[in-house]
Amino acid sequence: MNRYCFCLQVRPDRLDDYVERHRNVWPDMQAALRDSGWHNYSLFLRDDGLLIGYVESEDLEAAQKAMAVTEVNTRWQAQMTEFFTGIDGRPPDESFVLLPEIFHLQED
Q: Which GO terms describe its biological process (predicted)?
């Protein structure tokens, strides 16, 4: 399993709304993520809007492509686009910047 970390920028004036949307992620969206190969997926949000995501996947590109063809992801991304800056109208899941892993503490 590969580990991936990414970042995006949430509009500071929309932080509360963004957090609220993620308190109740649609069950069909969660199922689609799992079914398409997203595992151990977490989002972290700094108070200035810096969003850090972490996900494990055998192949993130394949997992993204699998999500891209789902109807639920199309609906979700359409609603999420308004929360972000710097994505130039693209869906957030096509706009994040992957961060290179530089250290990982191995389990014994």
A: rhamnose catabolic process
Of 16, 20, 25, nearest to 76 by C-alpha is: 25
pTM given for the model: 0.91
Structural contact between residues 58 and 17, judged by C-beta atoms closer than 8 angstroms: no
Q: Count the helices and strands in the chain (H runs, E runs).
A: 4, 5
Q: List the catalytic residue out of 2, 3, 12, 22.
A: 22
- Residue 104 domain flag: no
- CATH code for the domain of 61: 3.30.70.100
Q: State how many domains the chain has.
A: 1
Q: CA-CA distance, 73 to 35, in Å (whole number)? A: 12
**Beta partners for residue 2, in sequence order:** 57
- Asked whether residue 38 carries a pLDDT value surpassing 90, the answer given is yes
On whether residue 14 sits in a domain, the answer given is yes
Active site residue 104: no
HSE-up of residue 25 (Cα within 13 Å, Cβ side): 18
Position 105 in a domain = no
For residue 42, being part of any structural domain is answered with yes
